[in-house]
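INFO worker-7 received task bundle
INFO bundle size: 2
INFO processing item 0
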Amino acid sequence: MNHEKKSIFILGTSNNHMKINFFLLLCLLLTSLSNCSNKSSEGVAPDPQLHHGYVLQEYNENILAKKNPGHTINSAKDGPALSASGQQGSKGTKNHPQEDKAVFKKDIYHAIREIDKDVVVYPNDSKSYYNRGCLYQIKGDLNRALEDYDTAIELNPRLTPAYYNRGLVYFDEGDYWRAIRDYNMAIKLDPSFTQAYNNRGIAHNLRGEYDRALKNFDKAIWLDPEHAPAYFNRALAFTKKGNFDRAIKDYNKTIELNPDYIPIYNNRGNTYRSKGDFDLAINDFNKAISLDPEFTVAYHNRGRAHADKGNLKEALADFTQGCKMGYEPACIKLRLVGEPVP
């Protein structure tokens, strides 16, 4: 899908505004969240690039119209998530990543300063605190983000996206119980909030509550049958329950909706391997590596599938490559099964 160049506006009550480039925000956001992805040897955890989002609210009620029911700045239907390497602009030129980050930081700083002024003049404006909380959250200052979301909710207990974004903060801090509590409130206020069901399902998944997770993913898919993250995350829950056929079915659907999302192939490959379908597993790891030759976990997992087949030479080659790229589980496998291949 073609990405149009968009901008987010933080509209001040004094009719002045600060313009923030949409893609600059998103590029650095994805970079800052990438460490949350747990690329273990068994698979890839739910990826923030698909299920996290922030939106800056205007100082009026129109922003809550059904035009944007998800309150996110990215969804699987928009195509593959943007990388930190820059996004093509309207004339086909690319932003240099360092320039993007510099402009992003400058925009964030000035936007926060503008809202600081509004908070002084309008101390009871919940959306001012909400917007500043969004910016602090994107900036990575989670404590200040929580403070602003708390204040926004205190001033307006029906501000749905404030509960949702505060849930994201708790999620990123590993406090899944509090995250679930906030997603509960967001869903109570907006029962059609697809992303809130998806994220609540992920939190249940990470707490080992797989049946509850599945119910949430089912609801998200019922609300939006093309919501790729819900299929991806439901597949993880089915895998945890040992239902590999259902997991593969959901991975297939995710690929149909978002064929360039690399972790799908890695995870489906692991699922095939769990079923003993080693050739299909190797094909998926090959696909993941063809899409991203730096995706180290795929070398490790392909090596395991080769080892399962008795292809020791190919397994050692993959473990060697993974180890050279700094993936420690591959190094451990080398020490267990043999010497690196020259």
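INFO item 0 finished
INFO processing item 1
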Amino acid sequence: MGQNQGMKRAVELSAVLFSLLLWSCGGEDAPTVPPPAVTLPPFGGTIFIDPNIITSSDPTTFQDLSFAGQGSRTMFDRRVDGWITVDAYLFNASFDDGLAAEIQVNPEFGGPGVALVEAEKYAEVIGRLPTALRKDVETVWIHKGTQPFWWEQQPTHPHGPSRPLHGGRHTGGDVCA
């Protein structure tokens, strides 16, 4: 039984029990109350309320990206569902609200020029999020592939808890480009 069917069944049962309770408490002169109408919850999943809350036409706080070389970084890679250590291309991103993040690009992209294009693309998108949702973002990981976004809750290391990005307030990041 699906979640919506289960919810509908629970509402129907509650309506029947409520009606029986009212009927058993009243005498012949007791007013009759029709059972409440059975309706489903207003949303099937709040993540899908509006896919256009943040769009490419929205302003971004992204300000600057500087190449910081290559360095060994341990990054979570959803494609292997585990931690990998790579000699990542490193970029320092700054935003006009005073926040900053290190963007780590997997070297599988082939070179610093291609890595720069990916880092700029995601820095601009991340800059469209409200400051409150970015205030703890310190690290963004970019890999090739089609896995969804993944943010790491600070501290950013292999033993820190992590959660998928589904609305903000998760920090760090794993992006498959």
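INFO item 1 finished
INFO post-check item 1: The chain has two domains: 3-41, 62-176.
INFO post-check item 1: Residues 3-25 form the longest helix (23 residues).
INFO worker-7 idle
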